[in-house]
């Protein structure tokens, strides 16, 4: 679903005026589908097949439009007060779902009326002289109900949408967005839709939008935060505090992740001997993430290489290799700046032996930790 | 080599061990097949009873007639603790004979200005054939501490750890327990909290002693990791000089001949215990 913002007091006033006029027209007991006072919703019809009684280019005023019983109470909104007949037939077509009045109401929330006026005037100016001399102008927009699909025609562009559920309110919003983008793309704080395919009849489903990558998703995420690590299994059981950084590279659900952590040393016991232990892990793996609307949970796994230090009477340093798994959550999702929280486990299959004679043991075989902080997308 | 590197990395520890220093001040494992570790002229000496070759800083090797080396293979000597992880093949063997006529003594001694406080440990093995009767006028000493006389510098007695008989579970079966003989008081000290710890036969056992040579001297003894004696303020040496012996000293034993094995002797700054290791 694209995010649409309403600009300007004028637009909001126009919208409210539309609603008010619609209520008044309804109270008057009928469609105001005349050429002079006709609402832009000129082609309402009760037939789901739609379009059969569309007034077409000649009127768009709903002349000849048959209204079924279920649509009897639908009143096309009157034009804005003070506006001429230029917008009387702005939206034509005999669509029952969505109806032109529905589309008009949605359109009123997206684009200022003056833009509509300017657009319609430009359309009329481009017409052949004969049409203009006839005293009527074709609708700037036409809606066609095709049953499971519906067609929106605006500005010489055609877009056909599939909506088997016949959600008329949803259809009206989608149609209004397409019309608004066609009339004045700059009026909307949203990137224009991709150009239509050459066939212009390829079905598209709004429900597929959510699963696709947004062009704005960052290519890299850098997680910076505080961390805690606990040694388990063999070896001295120590708890370390520190900080870490993780970089996830790639858009979409799969990313390459590289991380490093830096911890303070801590003291522990090895078969009765006191040792000071240090742990500095570095790892590389893959991150699988689920980019929801607000939360972005993820899981990681990979290989770890850690620097290990043990200090008794002397200090010894070594490297250990292991495997890690992690799970975390990023909030909010799809945002360049976010918070994250993660848990991590590391397994060392062959921990290094430690000699602190007369004590002999091994370095820790498991590490459990957590990390939290800020996540920044680039 | 190209294959070896990834394999070593896959080992997890990269094939390396971490040595953070040792608290073992001195040790003797006898794995060279001789008693050379006791031949350090500055700290160790070998003493034998009359008739034996063994003497302080004895040059003869192998030593015959006195303290000899026993092989762990092909004999009744079971594996010492050492053997479980270090592949021990040799132990010191003390053979006494004629204890019914005079005191017989074989000892391995380390002496000098040893650490003011340290743990002295050794493993022992008593074969069942050496289960002897020890009468009231007899003794069988297996560990000693000595001190130096402040007036003339001569070596004096301090503490003896003796084997004493106890009656085993089966009627008439002899066994051993331990007693500490305090040369200052001239009598046996009670062993607390365990008054009569049973010394195993045909199995290696460890005796470890904490000895603090100071005005507030301290002696404590463990048998296989269980504390059997604690003298927190007993008399100690008059000066920093200390002598510690792993020994077999007997008088009036019946039968008069007996055999004792010892292995993995160590002086450590921290307790070794039965699970401790004195070498990598």
List the helices and strands and how they pair.
The complex is a heterodimer of chains A (378) and B (280).
Chain A: H1 9-28, E1 91-92, H2 100-108, H3 113-125, H4 129-133, E2 141-146, E3 149-154, E4 157-162, H5 168-183, E5 220-232, E6 239-249, E7 254-263, E8 266-270, E9 273-289, E10 296-311, E11 315-331, E12 337-347, E13 353-356, E14 359-362, E15 366-377
Parallel strand pairs in A: 1-2
Antiparallel strand pairs in A: 2-3, 3-4, 5-6, 5-15, 6-7, 7-9, 8-9, 9-10, 10-11, 11-12, 12-15, 13-14
Chain B: H1 4-10, E1 18-19, E2 24-28, E3 44-48, E4 68-71, H2 81-86, E5 90-96, E6 104-113, E7 117-125, E8 139-148, E9 155-167, E10 174-182, E11 187-189, E12 205-212, E13 218-223, E14 226-231, E15 241-251, E16 258-268
Antiparallel strand pairs in B: 2-16, 3-6, 4-5, 5-16, 6-15, 7-12, 7-16, 8-9, 8-15, 9-10, 10-11, 12-13, 13-14
What attributes does this structure have?
heterodimer; A: 378 residues; alpha+beta; Porin; 2 domains; 8-stranded antiparallel beta barrel; 4-stranded mixed beta sheet; 37% strand; rod-shaped; disordered N terminus; B: 280 residues; mainly beta; Jelly Rolls; 8-stranded antiparallel beta sheet; 7-stranded antiparallel beta sheet; 2 helices; 16 strands; globular
């Amino acid at each position: 679903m694209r995010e649409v913002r309403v600009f300007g007091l004028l637009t909001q006033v126009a919208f409210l005026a539309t609603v008010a006029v619609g209520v008044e027209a309804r109270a008057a007991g009928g469609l105001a589908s005349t050429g002079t006072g006709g609402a832009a919703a000129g082609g309402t019809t009760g037939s789901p097949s739609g379009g059969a009684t569309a007034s077409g280019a000649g009127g768009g005023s709903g002349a000849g439009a048959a209204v079924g019983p279920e649509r009897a109470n639908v009143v096309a909104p009157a034009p804005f007060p003070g506006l001429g007949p230029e917008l009387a037939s702005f939206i034509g077509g005999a669509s029952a779902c969505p109806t032109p009045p529905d589309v008009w109401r949605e359109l009123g929330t997206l684009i200022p009326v003056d833009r509509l006026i300017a657009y319609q005037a430009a359309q009329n100016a481009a017409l052949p002289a004969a049409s203009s001399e006839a005293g009527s102008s074709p609708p700037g927009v036409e809606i066609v109900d095709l049953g499971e699909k519906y067609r929106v025609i605006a500005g010489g562009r055609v877009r056909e949408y599939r909506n088997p559920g016949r959600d008329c309110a949803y259809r009206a919003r989608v149609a209004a967005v397409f019309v608004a983008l066609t009339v004045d793309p700059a009026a909307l704080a949203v990137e224009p839709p991709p150009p239509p395919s050459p066939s212009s009849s390829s079905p598209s489903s709004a429900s597929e939008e959510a699963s696709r990558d947004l062009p704005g998703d960052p290519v890299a995420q850098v997680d910076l935060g505080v961390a805690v690590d606990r040694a388990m299994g063999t070896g001295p059981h120590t708890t370390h505090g520190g900080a870490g950084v993780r970089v996830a590279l790639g858009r979409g659900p799969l990313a390459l992740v590289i991380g490093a952590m830096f911890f303070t040393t801590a003291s522990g016991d090895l078969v009765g001997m006191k040792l000071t232990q240090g742990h500095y892990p570095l790892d590389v793996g893959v991150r699988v993430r689920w980019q929801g609307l607000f939360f972005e949970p993820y899981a990681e796994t990979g290989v770890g290489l850690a620097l290990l230090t043990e200090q008794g009477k002397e200090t010894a340093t070594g490297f250990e290799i292991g495997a890690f798994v992690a799970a975390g959550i990023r909030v909010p999702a799809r945002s360049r700046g976010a918070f994250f929280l993660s848990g991590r486990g590391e397994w060392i299959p062959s921990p290094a032996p430690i000699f602190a004679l007369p004590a002999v043991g091994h370095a820790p075989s498991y590490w459990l930790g957590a990390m939290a902080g800020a996540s920044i997308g680039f | 080599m190209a294959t070896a590197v990834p394999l070593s990395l896959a080992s997890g520890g990269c094939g390396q061990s971490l040595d953070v220093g040792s608290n073992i001040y001195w040790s003797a494992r006898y794995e060279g097949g001789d008693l050379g570790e006791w031949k350090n002229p500055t700290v160790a000496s070998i003493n034998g009873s009359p008739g034996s070759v063994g003497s302080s800083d004895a040059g003869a090797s192998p030593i015959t007639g006195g303290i000899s080396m026993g092989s762990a293979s092909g004999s009744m000597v079971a594996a010492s603790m050492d053997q479980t992880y270090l592949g021990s093949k040799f132990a010191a063997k003390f053979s006494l004979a004629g204890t019914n006529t005079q005191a017989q003594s074989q000892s391995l001694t380390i002496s000098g200005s040893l650490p003011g406080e340290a743990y002295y440990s050794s493993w022992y093995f008593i074969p069942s054939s050496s289960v002897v009767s020890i009468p009231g006028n007899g003794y069988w000493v297996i560990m000693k501490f000595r001190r130096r006389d402040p007036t003339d510098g001569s070596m004096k007695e301090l503490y003896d750890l003796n084997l004493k008989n106890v009656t085993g579970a089966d009627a008439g079966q002899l066994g051993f327990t331990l007693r500490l003989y305090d040369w200052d008081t001239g009598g046996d000290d009670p062993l607390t909290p365990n008054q009569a710890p049973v010394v195993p036969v045909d199995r290696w056992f460890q005796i470890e002693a904490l000895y603090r040579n100071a005005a507030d001297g301290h002696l404590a003894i463990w048998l296989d990791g269980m504390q059997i004696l604690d003298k927190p303020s007993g008399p100690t040496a008059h000066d920093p000089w200390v002598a510690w012996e792993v020994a077999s000293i007997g008088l009036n034993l019946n039968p008069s001949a007996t055999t004792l094995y010892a292995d993995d002797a160590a002086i450590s700054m921290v307790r070794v215990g039965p699970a401790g290791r004195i070498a990598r």
